[in-house]
Structure formats: structure tokens, C-alpha cells
């Protein structure tokens, strides 16, 4: 390796250098032999390379001198000092410790920034913050209330194959009954929670009590009468329900069935239905009226379907909102806030959501079109006209 010591013209040592170079070959020819087509200036010192140093004169240098052509942009004389290879530092190519430390620190900062960006992009919002001044919202207890609902919802569910114990009725008859009751509910302009409680009472009663098909409609209107007494302020009379059945049953038969059902159900009417979870989950989804109506359209389609009894009320509510969002926006959407408050991930909802999409697709073409006709009216925002999220079926 060579180290160049350069002396500017006009320096006191110039005269001595000129005398020493008087009988030597021109520097240009030496430069062509030593380093053709290569720049003499390098950015790093390594074995087998030369490095230019602008140094002050060193009168006491004792190393062997050689010649190397100067950079043509400078009018300099060169003093070449040979350096033993053994003097080179063994760790010359090693990365300095402060560089390693800096790189590690930058990597850690990048990782922290990525986590922070994820948090910024998808925060979990406090959906009860706006209700803290409303005493009716019971914000202090709302989390405990829904935790209790989640714990006891299994007790309100029925076996998904209870129809095997019925000898005279089947799944199809149940579907016809529920579809008809949805129309009755619409005609009487009852609350939504009344409909969900009605269907729950029917399934829980039929799970425990065998029934002939001739009495199945009586079970339906009696269940709605009980639900109205529990949920409504203004309750339809027994005579109203008798008329809606075209006087197929008498007042005494309705009252006798009411007594039988209440005894079988042990007067337990306070059960978490999908409606209870829908209100909370819609709030977490920051829904507008359109999303709300689309969600209720899908979940009412599920009321008719016997196969949907295998899903819990909270899962049905969450899946209805998720599927409605997919139908409205035509892409998958499930926020961290919705996942936090529903306690369901997107993957957990897919099975139920795909079934809802199939119900939505055939809602207007089958024989049981009560839900479709109800949600095709302007009163319900024509929610049934929204295109189903068929892309959920692709997977």
C-alpha cells in the first residue's frame, strides 16, 4: 500500500524535490504504466489501494519513496511513502460500534412507529362517551349488563335439532308460521323486540312440548300475545288475534294455550334475543338508518330459517351488521371498535354471514316472501333492494 504526501508549489522543499527528479522519467509516463484509466483518488483505505492525503510536509519521513502521477486538477508534487501491509489495522473493515448502535436504535424506532401507525389507523373508540351525562344510558353499568347477556344467552337458545322430537310438524311448517307472524307484526305496527321475543317463545315451547299441526298457528298467536304484554305499551286484544286467524280459534283456546306456554317456560320471559345485541352492536358500528334497516332485514330473514338456530343471538346480530356493511359497501368491513364490543372477529362471522347472503339472494324469489315484501317498502328504506354481498361466497 502507498501513502501519498503532496507538496504545493512554492514550498521550501520544492527545490530539493526538483533536483531529485531531474534524471527521472516524466510523471505522465509513469502514471500510464502504474494506473491506466483509473482515478488516483479513493474514498476508503484498503489493502491494494492508494489513498490521497493532503498533508503538511514531513521532513523526517524515512519510508521508501516512489512516484505517482498527481491529479491533473492540481499542480502538485507527489511524495510516495510505502507502508507495510502488517501495519494495517485488522479491524479496518469492521463496522464501528456507534454505527451498530445507531442502526439498532433506528430499527427500534421504525418498529415503534409501525405499531403507533396501526393504532392511529384503527383505534378502539369509546362509544359511550357521548352518553355519560344521560342517566337513562346507565353508562356505569352498560358493560356489565352486556357481559351478563353474553353469559346467559346460551340458556335462552334451543337445540338446533329439536324438530326431531316433533311427530306432526316440521321445519317447513315452522318457517311458514314465522313468515306469517312477521306480516302480522307489520300489520299491528308492533315493536321490533316483540317479534324477536315471539319467535324465541315459540322455539322454546316447541322444544319442550309436542304439538299437532292444527294447533301450530294457535301457538304462534299466543306467543305474540305474551310478547306484546311483556314489551308493548298498547297491547292488541285477544279478539284482535282471533280475527287475524280468521276466527280459527276461540278466546278460551287462546287463554288455555297462554297458560300452558307460561307454565312450560316457567314464566321466564327475560331472555337476551338478537335484538338486544343489535342495538349495542349498531352503536359500535356507528351505523346510519340505512345500515340499521339492512341489518334488521338480514336478521329477520334468519328468524324464518330453522338452520340458524345453531348460532347464538349475539353472533347473529354481529353477523347481520357485518353482512349488511359488506352489501352496502361491496367490500369487507369490520372495524376494531366493532370487534371489541361484539367480541367477534371477522373470521368468526364468515360462516353465518355466508348463509345470510344466500338467504338475501333468494329472498324475493321463494314462496316465503314476507320479510322481503316488508323491507321493500319505503317505510323500511327499501333495504331488501340492496345488492347481496355475493363476493363473500367466493371463498
In short:
The chain has 15 helices and 4 strands. The longest helix has 25 residues.
Tell me what the structure shows.
By secondary structure, the chain is mainly alpha-helical. Among the domains are: 2-87, no CATH class; 274-393, Cyclin A, domain 1 (Orthogonal Bundle), CATH 1.10.472. Helix content is 51%, strand content 5%. Helix 6 packs across helix 7. Belongs to the cyclin family. Cyclin AB subfamily.
Itemize the secondary structure elements and their pairings.
Layout: E1 2-8, H1 14-20, H2 27-34, E2 50-53, E3 65-66, E4 76-82, H3 97-121, H4 142-156, H5 171-188, H6 192-208, H7 216-231, H8 238-244, H9 251-264, H10 274-284, H11 289-304, H12 313-329, H13 336-342, H14 346-362, H15 370-374
Parallel strand pairs: 1-2
Antiparallel strand pairs: 1-4, 3-4
Helix pairs in contact: 5-7, 6-7, 7-9, 10-12, 10-13, 11-12, 11-14, 12-14
Tell me, what's the shape? elongated
Q: What's the total helix number?
A: 15
Helices and strands: which structural class?
A: mainly alpha
User: What is the name of the CATH superfamily of the domain at 274-393?
Assistant: Cyclin-like
Percentage of residues in DSSP E strands: 5-15%
Q: What is the CATH T-level topology of the domain at 274-393?
A: Cyclin A, domain 1
Poorly predicted runs: 1-10, 27-78
Helix content: 40-55%
Strand numbers in spatial order across the main sheet: 2-1-4-3
| Alpha carbon gyration radius | 43 Å
Q: Helix and strand succession?
A: EHHEEEHHHHHHHHHHHHH
- Report the end-to-end length measured between terminal Cα atoms: 67 Å
Amino acid at each position: 500500500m502507498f501513502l501519498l504526501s503532496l507538496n504545493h508549489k512554492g514550498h521550501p522543499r520544492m527545490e530539493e524535490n526538483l533536483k531529485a527528479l531531474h534524471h527521472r522519467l516524466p510523471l505522465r509516463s509513469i502514471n500510464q504504466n502504474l494506473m491506466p484509466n483509473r482515478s488516483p483518488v479513493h474514498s476508503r483505505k484498503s489493502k491494494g489501494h492508494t489513498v490521497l492525503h493532503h498533508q503538511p510536509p514531513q521532513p523526517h519521513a524515512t519510508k521508501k519513496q516512489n512516484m505517482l502521477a498527481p491529479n491533473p486538477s492540481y499542480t502538485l508534487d507527489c511524495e510516495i511513502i510505502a507502508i507495510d501491509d502488517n501495519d494495517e489495522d485488522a479491524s479496518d473493515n469492521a463496522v464501528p460500534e456507534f454505527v451498530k448502535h445507531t442502526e439498532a436504535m433506528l430499527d427500534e424506532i421504525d418498529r415503534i412507529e409501525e405499531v403507533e401507525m396501526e393504532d392511529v389507523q384503527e383505534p378502539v373508540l369509546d362509544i359511550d362517551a357521548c352518553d355519560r351525562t344521560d342517566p337513562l344510558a346507565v353508562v356505569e353499568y352498560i358493560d356489565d349488563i352486556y357481559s351478563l347477556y353474553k353469559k346467559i344467552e346460551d340458556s335462552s337458545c334451543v337445540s338446533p335439532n329439536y324438530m326431531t322430537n316433533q311427530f306432526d310438524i316440521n321445519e317447513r311448517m315452522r318457517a311458514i308460521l314465522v313468515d306469517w307472524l312477521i306480516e302480522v307484526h307489520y300489520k299491528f305496527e308492533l315493536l321490533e323486540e316483540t317479534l324477536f321475543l315471539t319467535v324465541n317463545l315459540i322455539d322454546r315451547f316447541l322444544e319442550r312440548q309436542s304439538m299437532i299441526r292444527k294447533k301450530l298457528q294457535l301457538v304462534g298467536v299466543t306467543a305474540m300475545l305474551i310478547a306484546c304484554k311483556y314489551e308493548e305499551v298498547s297491547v292488541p286484544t285477544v279478539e284482535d288475534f282471533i280475527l287475524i286467524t280468521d276466527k280459527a280459534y276461540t278466546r278460551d283456546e287462546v287463554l288455555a294455550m297462554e297458560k300452558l306456554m307460561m307454565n312450560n317456560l316457567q314464566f321466564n320471559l327475560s331472555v337476551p334475543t338478537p335484538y338486544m345485541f343489535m342495538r349495542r352492536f349498531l352503536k359500535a358500528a356507528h351505523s346510519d338508518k340505512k345500515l340499521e334497516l339492512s341489518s334488521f332485514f338480514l336478521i329477520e330473514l334468519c328468524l324464518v330459517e330453522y338452520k340458524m338456530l345453531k348460532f347464538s343471538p349475539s353472533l347473529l346480530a354481529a353477523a347481520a351488521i357485518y353482512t349488511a356493511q359488506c352489501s352496502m359497501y361491496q367490500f369487507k368491513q369490520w372495524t376494531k371498535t366493532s370487534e371489541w364490543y361484539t367480541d367477534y372477529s371477522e373470521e368468526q362471522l364468515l360462516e353465518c354471514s355466508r348463509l345470510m347472503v344466500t338467504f338475501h339472494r333468494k329472498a324475493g324469489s321463494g314462496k316465503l316472501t314476507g320479510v322481503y315484501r316488508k323491507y321493500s317498502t319505503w317505510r323500511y328504506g327499501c333495504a331488501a333492494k340492496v345488492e347481496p354481498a355475493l363476493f363473500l361466497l367466493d371463498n
